[in-house]
Write a sequence for this structure.
């Protein structure tokens, strides 16, 4: 029979290899699923992973990978800093919404006035909005010891109500015939977060995501603060003896992740989405949690994980349309990815042992 | 360097794509973008029935593709672009929130025809279409007003947009006409499809004494909640929801997109497609009233059917004056009927309804 035995030390090479194993296992299990649905598994997997990158219309899908991946990476980087320190911000979706409302709010307040200062003001408003929304669970935790998982999650629903109210009230397009939704910022040059180079998908949000990756990498591996964050997560008591102030780390990690989520929302509303609508948020804040873990809470890993996740979304939609795969099958496929990753992660700290006979 | 490679690749591929569009492919390809799952039993289900009817009608001459659960915003824009790149000739985008994305994509593909449901932005290659669901609401209101014993009618509203407000007003006016004591309790669910939320809303309304529940959301959850309560009347929404007949579901409004989808596909095949704004109802069959079951007294059923027939012949308009607005100001004079412009942008309750439209 098989038994698990703790490794004396976590396996380094498996740390790098398990994400690849997980992707491979997902392809195999997903292929079986697609076959059970009566679709050609090889064609389905190829459509999801190959078509967006190297297919006939890759020139369109590759930029879309950036558009879809950037908010995921931006949010996941912030979350990972907190997760490293054992601070669980589950409410990035709410911070993303508030960032978008604040960013769009600043732009619409100035409409139709044109100025080069509007976009920077929107960036600041977006970051501050997300930061402020994350400060609610942070301060409650520091002051009253509340659970940040619950508070940040609940605030997502509050943010969604606020979003609906904005789309129907304060930010509603006055020329929209009574329909909900704000003016489209894509038609407001000073506020439009356009591609920096046309048709590449490379907008300011993508640039911000790359900067965030580098910043987080340097912070975690080269900076004292990064060391404190890691230490707080790995050994809270040791961290305290080393003079780390836990409440400082809590405020810092939640604030940073909130600000990054707010930025992601602001770049999205100013660019690809263009509008504050009731259904503006599509779950980036939650998917980013998966991305953060898929990337092993490592900034470089998160960059690749975000792009991989974006790939499964884009490829999944192509597979739906070209092969008639149901959306639910694609979602199961994406779920498998996280499932296998967590399952294989066990092998980093444990190894499998064949044992003879039953243990007494 | 990466960007340059992508740019060069895109230039090359654009050339290819252009060539692919120019050669007339044998089959007419029709794409459908859905906001919910095809199995929602309501809004998206009926659009998908329309798609299947197109396949049925033209057989091998058409190929249909669809993507379900497409979020409004950039995701929908990508899915539409993908369909256009894959050679779709006609694309139906079936949710209000697809409006700006549809216009954006249509600009990039002038040779592809687009049909956007329930919106108001058109272009040379973008039509809009919607159904006069309020005609069905009038029939529901009549039956509801007659059936209620508590005189409290619950209404699960989705979003405070003109279409939903029209429905509430139409139902209320016709309930009030047959039952002056009737009162409407309205819950705004802020969703089109969320079985859990819809069930909670239905339960809350029933607890407040409603013995008729109307819904403008797409799932069958309110039907199940009414069935559990035992003595509550419901109506199918968007789809027949016949699995809950004969009771609690006593009738339904069915969105029947099939004739329109077939006609528009035919127009693309014949090369006669033009950008139009279509707003059809009971007369053309775009809105259908599902079977009125025997749970409804025979005389009420006969009155309801007579109203349907009058609307079919164009003899009766559900918004015929005198009608005042909620604040008591006059809207329609005696015998005056509402203009389509007034209806399209309706953002007020009629007199007698209580509460405010959220904003």
């Amino acid at each position: 029979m098989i038994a698990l035995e703790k490794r004396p030390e976590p396996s380094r090479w498996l740390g790098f290899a398990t994400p690849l194993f997980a992707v491979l296992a997902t392809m195999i299990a997903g292929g079986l699923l697609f076959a059970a649905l009566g679709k050609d598994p090889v064609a389905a997997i190829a459509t999801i992973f190959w078509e967006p990158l190297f297919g006939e219309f890759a020139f369109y899908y590759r930029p879309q990978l950036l558009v879809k991946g950037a908010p995921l990476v931006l949010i996941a980087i912030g979350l990972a800093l907190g997760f490293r320190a054992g601070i669980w911000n589950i409410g990035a979706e709410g911070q993303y919404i508030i960032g978008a409302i604040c960013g769009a709010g600043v732009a619409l307040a100035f409409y139709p006035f044109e100025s080069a200062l509007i976009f920077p003001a929107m960036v600041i408003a977006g970051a501050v909005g997300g930061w402020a929304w994350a400060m609610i669970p942070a301060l409650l935790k520091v002051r009253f010891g509340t659970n940040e998982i619950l508070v940040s999650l609940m605030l997502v629903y509050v943010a969604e109500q606020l979003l609906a109210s904005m789309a129907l009230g304060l930010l509603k397009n006055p020329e929209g015939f009574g329909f909900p939704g704000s003016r489209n910022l894509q038609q407001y040059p000073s506020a439009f977060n356009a591609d920096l180079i046309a048709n590449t998908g490379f907008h300011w949000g993508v640039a911000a995501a790359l900067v965030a990756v580098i910043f987080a990498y340097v912070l975690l591996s080269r900076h004292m603060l990064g060391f404190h964050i890691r230490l707080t997560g790995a050994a809270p008591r040791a961290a305290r003896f080393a003079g780390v102030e836990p409440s400082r780390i809590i405020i810092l990690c939640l604030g940073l992740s909130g600000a990054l989520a707010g930025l992601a929302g602001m770049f999205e509303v100013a660019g690809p989405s263009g509008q504050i609508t009731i259904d503006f948020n599509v779950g980036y804040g939650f998917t980013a949690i998966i991305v953060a873990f898929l990337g092993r809470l490592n900034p470089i890993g998160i960059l690749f994980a975000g792009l991989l996740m974006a790939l499964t979304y884009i490829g999944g939609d192509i597979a739906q349309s070209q092969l008639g795969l149901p959306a639910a099958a694609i979602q199961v496929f994406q779920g498998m990815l996280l499932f296998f990753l967590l399952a294989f992660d066990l092998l980093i700290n444990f190894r499998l042992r064949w044992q003879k006979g039953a243990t007494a | 360097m990466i960007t340059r490679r992508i740019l060069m690749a895109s230039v090359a591929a654009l050339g290819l794509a252009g060539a692919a569009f120019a050669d007339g492919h044998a089959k007419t390809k029709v794409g459908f973008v859905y906001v919910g799952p095809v199995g929602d039993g309501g809004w998206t289900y009926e659009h998908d029935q329309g798609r299947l009817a197109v396949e049925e009608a033209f057989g091998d001459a058409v190929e249909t593709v669809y993507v379900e659960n497409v979020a409004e915003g950039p995701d929908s824009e990508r899915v539409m672009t993908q369909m256009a790149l894959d050679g779709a000739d006609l694309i139906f985008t079936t949710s209000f929130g697809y409006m700006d994305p549809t216009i954006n994509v249509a600009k990039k593909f002038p040779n592809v025809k687009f049909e956007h449901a329930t919106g108001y932005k058109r272009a040379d290659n973008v039509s809009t279409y919607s159904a006069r669901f309020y005609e069905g609401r009038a029939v529901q209101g009549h039956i509801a007003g007659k059936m209620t014993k508590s005189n409290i009618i619950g209404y699960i509203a989705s979003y405070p947009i003109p279409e939903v407000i029209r429905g509430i007003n139409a139902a209320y006016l016709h309930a009030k006409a047959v039952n002056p004591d009737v009162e409407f309790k309205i819950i705004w669910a802020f969703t089109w499809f969320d079985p859990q939320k819809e069930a909670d809303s239905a339960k809350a309304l029933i607890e407040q004494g409603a013995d008729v529940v109307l819904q403008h959301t797409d799932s069958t959850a309110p039907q199940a909640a009414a069935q559990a309560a035992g003595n509550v009347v419901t109506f199918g929404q968007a789809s027949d929801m016949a699995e809950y007949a004969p009771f609690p579901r006593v009738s339904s409004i069915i969105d029947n997109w099939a004739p329109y989808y077939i006609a528009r596909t035919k127009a693309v095949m014949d090369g006669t497609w033009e950008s139009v704004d279509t707003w059809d109802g009971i007369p053309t069959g775009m809105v259908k009233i599902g079977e009125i079951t025997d749970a409804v007294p025979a005389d009420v059923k006969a009155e309801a059917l007579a109203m349907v027939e009058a609307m079919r012949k164009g003899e009766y308009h559900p918004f015929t004056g005198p009608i005042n607005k909620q604040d008591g100001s006059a809207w329609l004079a005696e015998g005056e009927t509402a203009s389509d412009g007034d209806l399209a942008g309706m953002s007020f309750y009629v007199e007698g309804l209580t509460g405010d439209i959220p904003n």
